[in-house]
Design goal:
There is one protein chain. With about 90 residues, the chain is α+β, with helices and mostly antiparallel strands. The chain has helices spanning about 15-25, 50-60, and strands at about 1-10, 30-35, 40-50, 65-75, 85. The protein has a five-stranded mixed β-sheet with strand order 4-1-3-2-5. A hairpin with a 5-residue loop joins β2 and β3. It is globular and about 30 Å long.
């Protein structure tokens, strides 16, 4: 299982971006969670068996509402296996 931590910067809060990420993840069978960051960005933990599917998911983030200026991601070891995808409120 591959897990990516993704940080999206730009005008991505208050524009439906988390809902867009949720719908995209559901369509692509990505598991994990998304939440707003205090710095105005959005953070995503995304899991899938295929690294290529996760990379396609990341590319599609630029199509979301608002304005995506930057997407940074890194693979990480995750002790948690997600069952589905959800929006979390932190």
């Amino acid at each position: 299982m591959t897990t990516f931590r993704i940080v999206v910067k730009g005008m991505v809060q208050g524009v439906g971006f988390r809902a867009f990420v949720y719908d995209l993840a559901k369509r692509m069978n990505i598991r994990g969670e998304v939440w707003n960051r205090k710095d105005g960005g959005v953070e995503i933990l995304a899991q899938h068996e295929s690294r290529e599917e996760l990379e396609e998911f990341i590319e599609n983030l630029y199509l979301g509402p608002g304005r995506v200026d930057d997407v940074r991601f890194e693979e990480e070891e995750s002790k948690k296996t997600f069952e589905n995808f959800r929006i979390v409120f932190r």
